[in-house]
Amino acid sequence: MWHDNETAIDYLNFGVVADACASMLTQAKGEPISIGVSGGWGTGKSSLVKMIATRLKAPSGVVPNESNKPANDFVVLTFNPWLYQDFESARSALLQIVGDEIVKLAKENEKIADKVTELWRRINLLRIAQLSGEAALTLTTGIPIGALGKTFNSIANFFTSEGTTDEIAIDSEAITATKNGLLKPKELFSMPANIQAFRDTLESLLAELEITLVIFVDDLDRCLPQTAISTLESIRLLLFIRRSAFVIAADNDFIKAAVKVHFDGAGISSDVATNYFDKLIQVPLHVPRLGLNEAKAYLVLLLLEREAKFGSLTLEQFERALELIPARLRNSWKGETINQEFLYDLVGANEALRSLMNLAEGLASLLHGSSAVNANPRLMKRFLNTVYLREALSAPQGIKLDIAALAKWHLLERCDESLAEAIAGQVHSDNDGRVQLLADAEEAATKQVDLPTPFKSNPFTRQWLQLPPLLGTEDLRPLLHLSRDSGTRDFGDDNMNPDSRKLRDALKNATSGHQSLTDLMNKVGPDQTELAMTKAWQSCSNARTWRRNEEIVMLVECCKTFPVLGKKAAGLLEQAPLKQVGPGIIPTLGAQPWAREILERWVDVNELSKPTKAAIENLRKKH
């Protein structure tokens, strides 16, 4: 299984981008800079941020001294506001982290001890001002009127934790603070002046320490809107201070939505919401979407990583792949691709590994082109996790399936759920789990001719049908048994009791509803009725003309007795070969609540005959 955490190991060809960002931070030479790393969920923002941070850190074990000290040391801090959500203000937490780091760096430097104390005094004043919720705070009165009861304990906690306290008395006359001078009595507090003093003190300390403070902010798009905005507001306090830099990873769409929530009622436009984030960022960087080559390389590296862990691939072979694959991707503009010859050279003559490389090639094209996955690295990783989890579940149950078959079926579940359900609905004991319709479709795809209904003639479906192994002549029951997490599976009459089998036969012969049919449904209950309805529908598929009301009685009557079955009935109806659907059944279907949405979709499909479309239009007018 692959974990879902960020990594500094480059599987996504982000190394060039990370190098460029690190170079920009280095070339700033102490000038303030902010870089925004934007991208949707799962695109690799956190990994890219970690790669940039790794490039800025000194090699492990190297202690800078006067002889080897670079001109501009970087001190890297990573701030994750999501960790503080509901526990502490993100603004306070960020200031605390910066203060703690400065204290740690300055502990051996007595010359700047007073400045460090002054920085902490400013940080605490800003934290108190935030707690009070007021625009101003005077130390003459201690705290703004009306907020005393709410914040007394919080303020006391700030100062009692800093050192030994002579006395803390907050009243309308004065405030006495700690011995170390964190607060001065009867000092007029000005928010703008304190913010500027904080910035000046921090800038002076960074210059004295001869460091550049680089703060990486990640996981903003996991936060609630209030926390996200609070974090961005705290960043403003530190932004554009000399010898400081920010790298902020966030989903632009999420930030826009958070800004709108924050300013709810102000009627701000999308442009204003976008500008809010843009004003914090000097260098915008969008995480690139994986191309087909990158998607293939990513799958290959994930699969080879697993094989190396299990000993099927040597560590030397895996390290060679880690070196050669990114190098080839960097030269993709020259026409170098991740092709079969290259992959076979990586894994040698091992047939099992070569089969995995073939699988990666086939999957990459479909996962890259599918809108359900869209080459999203996190979704691709989860896809493989599901496939290998099912493989792990197969052996204890005596099921023998190769990874390629498991991957092919899960690919269809992930990218075209309705087609997967339609095929699964054809699997039962009567045909030993084999679906002739699927075999026909695979043959049609190979011959490049029209596909049978319900297969859509689009690139994904045609590529999926030709992806090895072919499943049309295979028993699909083991595959479906292992995929029970994605739906309830029934492969025959095994789960049906005698009464439900009786109901199945009655439904097959029914030409209209009658009381004895209803009584039998009530006797077996909704679950067994669903099985009976499904089996009866499948058994009559070859004889169905799609023109007579008698042919849909089984769906109509079952849903009348148990309306909860409407979703299942709609799924069965949706498999209809639209060219064959006649206008005669439209009024009956239009009277069923569960069928109306399907009729609305049908009316826009070219395959439907004009008389049938006209019948649907007439229904619209009546309603």
From TrEMBL:
SUPFAM superfamilies: P-loop containing nucleoside triphosphate hydrolases. It comes from the Bacteria. It holds the Pfam family KAP_NTPase. Gene3D superfamilies: P-loop containing nucleotide triphosphate hydrolases (3.40.50.300). Residues 17-392 form the KAP NTPase domain. Coiled coil: none annotated. This is KAP NTPase domain-containing protein.
